[in-house]
Structures are given as structure tokens and as C-alpha cells.
Amino acid sequence: MKINQTKIAGVTVVCSEPFKDDRGFFNRIFCQKELESIRPGIIIAQINHSMTKTKGTIRGMHFQYPPHAEMKIVRCTKGSIFDVAVDLRKDSPTFLQWHGEVLSAENMKALVIPEGCAHGFQSLEDDIEMVYLHTQFYSKQSEGAVRYDDPKIAIKWPQNCTAISEKDSAYPFLANNYEGIVL
Asked: C-alpha distances in angstroms, 170 versus 79, 129, 167, 180?
């Protein structure tokens, strides 16, 4: 695995180095030892699998507040997505900045989204599938989100949005005095 830091502290791209031969390939999805540089003593509490049917669908931008703030490691295992992390950490030098990365079954990249960052994605193809590794269990009481189209963040989605949940589209825009998350 090769680990590349983005401009946002803690948001990293993990590039796999699969073993390939005439039978196919073998690829390590998670290795605690190799990811120690990102998070010493990393423990994965939950693994989720999702499928999105329609190209252009946006899901997000989700996070969990402390004390259930979580780090996510996200991989696209079928098709391709534009995956986004938004820094919501109070006093971060990249506060309200975003990083987007194309993740696909072909490039086998993963995006690491640290605590205090919102996460979302847009499907670039029909019938995409993703795997999410979480360092905390889901907590409904700690659930948080920001709008995918909030002008204060101004994410440049690669396609027009073809579908979004009623819940995700109903989140309010960030207030002018929004100060961020304290971890």
C-alpha cells in the first residue's frame, strides 16, 4: 500500500498494489500494520457495504459528532465514484475546504476520512458498490451532515445530481457564524 497525503490533514489516499497474474488479482483492502502511519493502533469497529443504482446520485455529506466521531476508509468495489471529504474541524488550517478523488474498482484506491470531516460521494456509473470501514459504531444521536451543495463549501461535482435522498437535500446550509467541530 502507498499512502498519499492530500492538502487536508488526515485525508489520505491509499493506493493498493495488487498481485496480478493470469487468474486475476489479489488485493489487500485493509492492513492494520501498513496503516499505522495514519492511525497508530487503528481498530475497525464496523464495515458497511452499499450499492447505488443510478449514475449521478449523490450521497452525503455525513459525519458523526464526538464522542462518536469516526474515521472512515472508503473503497469503491464496483464501478466508479467521485468521493469527497470536507474539513469541518474548528481551527483547522483547511477549515471548510474539500478534497475529491475518483475511486473505482479499476484503480483500487481508498480514501481515508478522519474524524471531524464530512464524507459523501457521487456515482459516476450505474450500479456502483462501496465498502466502508469505520473506527466507531454508528450512533444516531451523534449523526451530523452538511448540504452537498452548500455554497460555503462549493464542491465541484463532476456531473449534475440525478438523485439525492430527501433527508440529504433537506439539511440547511451552514450558518454564517458556523465555527466547526471540536474534537
From this structure: 28, 25, 5, 20
